[in-house]
Write a structure and sequence with these properties.
258 residues, alpha+beta
Length: 258
């Protein structure tokens, strides 16, 4: 009987293994279908808008100079959205195919933050938001990371803090020592904040608290999923603290280089 018991246990294990395999495949399949559906939707909406304006212009609305300008501006907004979504999709595709190809080098994170601030100074000004660098360290802070990808993380977090920040608000970036071997980079805003119930899903692809608000801000709904992907590909951790109505703080760890 012990042999039969052993055999039956092995059979059970085998069947259980196959069951898990099928479950994983089915989940991946439905995940893929959802993803495709979301992509189609993200492209379709602005594309139809652009088409609508172009058709109206072709039908003669363009004869009036004012109307022509207004419609062209709206069509251009749609194109801008398409470009943003396409860029983010491209980034996700790259991360998926060479996700492990993280090019680790020693980089000065202070310099990288300054670059990102310079890039978005105008955008912040337009919304009356101040970008502040809480410079505890006056010397270069060297960390290990992929320059382009970490810059992308900073860009996405800073852009979000501007998009969802309150006018006259402030975005503060700070770096602290996290433990012996890591720093933590924090991007904090005093903007609209996020309700607790959304926090667990916020890093999912296409997850948004407010669809129309995100779209009106030119968001693809992919920014934070890209951030998480990059941070985790560095074997680092991302944290999020947020209080609805008060503001949010996104932070991530980075390996100290020296
Ligand atoms: P999106 O393109 O919609 O900005 P993200 O993936 O970057 O996509 O962010 C997902 C959602 O998380 C946003 O739609 C927004 O609701 C919320 N969010 C992101 N950053 C912030 C922030 N700093 N403050 C408040 N809400 C935020």
């Amino acid at each position: 009987t012990t042999d039969i018991d052993k055999l039956s246990k092995r059979m059970q294990k085998f069947v259980e293994g196959k069951r898990m395999e099928i479950k994983n495949l089915t989940e991946r399949d439905s995940f893929r279908r959802d993803f495709l559906g979301n992509v189609a939707h993200e492209l379709k909406t602005p594309l139809f808008t652009v088409q609508g304006y172009i058709l109206t212009l072709l039908e003669g609305a363009g004869n009036d100079k004012e109307i022509r300008k207004k419609y062209l501006e709206r069509a251009n907004k749609g194109v801008e959205r398409l470009v943003a979504v396409t860029k983010d999709l491209d980034m996700i595709a790259k991360l998926e195919t060479d996700g492990l190809k993280i090019n680790i080098e020693v980089l000065n994170i202070l310099e990288l933050i300054q670059n990102v601030f310079d890039l978005f100074e105008m955008k912040a000004k337009k919304r009356n938001i101040t970008l502040k660098f809480d410079r505890v360290y006056e010397f270069p802070v060297f960390v290990k990371g992929d320059v382009e990808k970490i810059e992308q993380v900073l860009i996405n977090l800073v852009v979000n803090s501007i998009k969802y920040g309150k006018p006259n608000g402030t975005t503060v970036i700070a770096i602290d020592s996290y433990n012996k071997s890591k720093y933590v980079v924090r991007v904090a805003d005093n903007g609209e904040g996020i309700k607790q119930q959304h926090l667990p899903r916020l890093f999912e692809r296409f997850y948004r608290v407010d669809q129309s608000r995100s779209r009106e801000q030119g968001g693809s709904g992919l920014g934070l999923s890209i951030v998480k992907h990059i941070v985790e590909a560095h074997d680092q951790t991302i944290f999020l603290k947020s209080t609805y109505g008060e503001g949010s703080e996104f932070s991530f760890t980075m390996e100290k280089a020296i």
